């Protein structure tokens, strides 16, 4: 299978590094900047010979699938449409497009042509996030009462998107993956002049209602990727910046409505094991399998569309 990667800035080379490790995949690379093409060829061409291009229209004729990792975001729609119209499977970086209309058009075009349209929501391919989904499904936390997410760092500033468009796709895609339901109510607080936003989502599930608080920032001294999920039985903390990543807390507050007394339970904590395979490698393998077997991606175009819809709801 021949897969081309267009856009060799920050994320594209990471995808190339994983693709070259997959047997049977021929890797093509493309960027308008010759220096970026040269650097990727030097860094990753030792393991598998790369075929390089400077023009997307030339590369797209020769491949079976295209991975679009270009900046700015406004380039995604045009390149994806060109690839789909040429009969190529497409992987789109998050967020997939700037507008809901563009996303819908790409989803429909892929459907009509029977092509895989995959959106790079990398975190849902990670071992910790998948393990958390299983823990929630098994009911170990009890009924979910709240979710607190913090996605913070200094930068990376981008030309045509704010901090919400950059970091919230991670939070939105994880919440959808875990709970298979959109929020019923959204509140937003955006601090003027700095790239810092607070979002509050209300979820109504058959098990009950809970609230998710999301804080994203480009104006923070440390890189933080953290989520705390509280339930009626236990609590769970996911910290992607640590080695252990998942910690379960057997603690809770019990309220007696009759006496109005609160009793606290604390039976300790334990570290939860998870699959430690690199998420991006699992995602690349998943994309290849979907093409080979004609299956829908876990993070398909519809999933990407729902994230774009949420982004537009919470954006100014």
CATH superfamily of the largest domain: Dihydrodipicolinate Reductase, domain 2
The level-1 CATH class of the largest domain: Alpha Beta
Our count of helices gives: 9
Task: Return residue spans where pLDDT drops below 50 for at least 5 consecutive residues.
Answer: none
Radius of gyration: 21 Å
Query: Numbering strands along the chain, what is their spatial order in the largest sheet?
Result: 8-9-10-7-11-12-13-14
SSE succession: EHEHEHEHEHEHEHEEEEEEEHH
Number of domains: 2
Overall number of strands: 14
Concise overview:
By secondary structure, the protein is an alpha/beta fold. It has helices spanning 12-19, 34-44, 56-60, 75-85, 100-113, 127-138, 163-179, 279-293, 301-314; strands at residues 2-6, 26-30, 51-53, 65-68, 89-93, 117-120, 144-154, 185-190, 196-205, 208-217, 219-231, 235-239, 246-256, 261-271.
Structural key phrases:
single chain, 316 residues, alpha/beta, Rossmann fold, Dihydrodipicolinate Reductase, domain 2, 6-stranded parallel β-sheet
Layout: helices, strands, pairs:
Layout: E1 2-6, H1 12-19, E2 26-30, H2 34-44, E3 51-53, H3 56-60, E4 65-68, H4 75-85, E5 89-93, H5 100-113, E6 117-120, H6 127-138, E7 144-154, H7 163-179, E8 185-190, E9 196-205, E10 208-217, E11 219-231, E12 235-239, E13 246-256, E14 261-271, H8 279-293, H9 301-314
Parallel strand pairs: 1-2, 1-4, 2-3, 4-5, 5-6, 7-10
Antiparallel strand pairs: 7-11, 8-9, 9-10, 11-12, 12-13, 13-14
Helix pairs in contact: 1-8, 4-5, 5-9, 6-7, 7-9
